[in-house]
Amino acid sequence: MNNNLKKTIRNHSFITTLVVVAIVVVINILAVQIFYRFDLTQHKDYSLSSASEQVLKNLEDDLTINVYFSEKLPPEYLNMRQGVEDLLAEYQNYSGGKLQVNYIDPKDDADLKEQLTVKGIPELQFNVLEKDQFQLTNGFLGIAVDYLDKEEVLPVVETTNNFEYKLTSAIKKVMNQNSVKIAWTKSGTESTQTYKEALKQLRENYEVAEVDLTAGKLLDSSYQILVVTNPEKELDDVGRYIIDQFLMSDKSIFFLVDGVKVDKYLQPQENKTGLNDLLINYGLTLSNKLVLDTSSDMATFSGGYMNFMVQYPYWIKVTKDDFAQDNPAVNQLESITLPWASNIDVSQEKIGSNQLQYLAKSSAKSWLAKEPISLDPQQKFSADNYNQYNLAVSELGHFASYFQDKDNPLADKSVEKISSTDNGRIVLIGDADFLSDSFLAQYPTNSVFFANMLDWLSQDESLISIRSKGVTDRPLKQLSDRQKTAIKYTNIFGITGIILIVGLVRFILRKKKFRKIKFKL
């Protein structure tokens, strides 16, 4: 009986083991077929966004992505390569079998290298450690996206940061889903060198052309957005008319204008743009005052032969809580930095029933600079009272022309004047310096904010969620001097005090225990 029982138990254990093994095998087989990853990051930084998924689902024909990565890469690029491969695997998973990814190492293929050069994918030089010494080697880190007879190229992929945005943008381009044309204003002999990097980034996703508001001609109707920056000279009625009629044509205008101009010697002067009459007609007034904020960034200045860093209230740091939380262009941003920004006043009477939104505000602890304005970074900053100010606003809806009751100032009177529109879109920021090359290098979230607003103005919000992923800047909460002092002395004496208290308690407990033992004896 015992032998039979043992035999039954052994058979049962064997069957159980077989069942477990079978279940594990089935799970592994299913796991190979089903692609799924758990992404626990706040903004799902390692998962495809819904915008990318939608683009892939809209593929009507086969899409090919050729990855020209050299096999031998420096160690610092290995994680990047793995990240690219993982992301491309997700792209394939959502493409419904219409996406093919080819990994190609050009190696010593001279013909292929020549073809890549023609495509715009350069051969790079790397320092690789071999046999305990650094050696110079050549390689490629480019990607080409082919769809039907069109091709878009990512010349160099050095990081996975923003890679999904660039790749999805390239796919949309070859699918003819991104053909927005932007006009960037220049006035007189004004140079756009100040915004060289911003223009470079724009041209990656848009058709951008520079236009002259003093030329006396209306803008081509193919442009969808007009970007207006500080004019070199005050605009006359001709320049104002060109801007006004563009808006009346159901188009969008992005104003980046300083209320106060600051030169390299930190000397302020009123910025006479000729735009305020136009803006006032639309219900918006750009102040000629500067806003200071306790929520500010560090700035580096030169003093004699030395550089120094100082907390500079004129460089306003707009944080998450002060963005419009119901606007997709800004609600995922952690911060932007606006140097020497002016506040924007709104006329509710002029706005009427239009949709008005305060995109970015200063903190509740901000104030206006007193006259005469001093920009000295070493001064003692103080305020009589605090307030909150509008730094960026948007307005959508009905606009009456500034020239509704005025004559057409252009020489060419053949084009009929448009008196109003019900579908105009305006964004106004009381600062133009935030987009200059020097600030974009230091504050990359500024360019994200700008690009998001352009997508929003063009009514193509699909790429906004992708661009904002992984862009994280979480500044420390602003504290009062009393709070800072309390934290300082807590750090100095708090830990020491806790150790002394714990030691004293242990001493007392041990003394009581010793007395009890002595009493028993």
Descriptors for this entry?
521 residues, alpha/beta, Glutaredoxin, Rossmann fold, four-stranded mixed β-sheet, 22 strands
Describe the structure.
This protein is of the alpha/beta class and 521 residues long. The protein has 13 helices and 22 strands. The protein has a seven-stranded mixed β-sheet with strand order 8-7-9-10-22-21-19, sandwiched between helices. It is globular, with a radius of gyration of 31 Å. The model has no long low-confidence stretch (mean pLDDT 86).
Largest sheet: 7 strands, mixed
User: Over the alpha carbons, how many angstroms does the gyration radius reach?
Assistant: 31 Å
Number of folding domains?
A: 4
Shape verdict: globular
- How confident overall, as mean pLDDT? 86
Helix tally equals: 13
User: What's the CATH topology label of the largest domain?
Assistant: Rossmann fold
Count every beta strand, where a strand is a DSSP E run of 2 or more residues. 22
Low-confidence stretches: none
CATH class of the largest domain: Alpha Beta
Q: Based on the structure given, which CATH architecture of the largest domain is correct?
A: 3-Layer(aba) Sandwich
Task: Map the helices and strands.
Elements: H1 2-33, H2 50-57, E1 63-69, H3 78-94, E2 99-104, H4 110-119, E3 124-130, E4 133-139, E5 141-147, E6 150-154, H5 163-174, E7 181-186, H6 196-203, E8 207-212, E9 225-228, H7 237-248, E10 252-256, E11 260-262, E12 268-270, H8 276-281, E13 284-286, E14 291-293, E15 296-303, E16 306-319, E17 335-339, E18 344-346, H9 348-351, E19 355-361, E20 366-368, E21 390-400, E22 420-429, H10 437-442, H11 444-457, H12 464-468, H13 481-520
Parallel strand pairs: 1-2, 7-8, 7-9, 9-10, 10-22
Antiparallel strand pairs: 1-5, 3-4, 5-6, 11-12, 13-18, 14-20, 15-16, 16-17, 19-21, 21-22
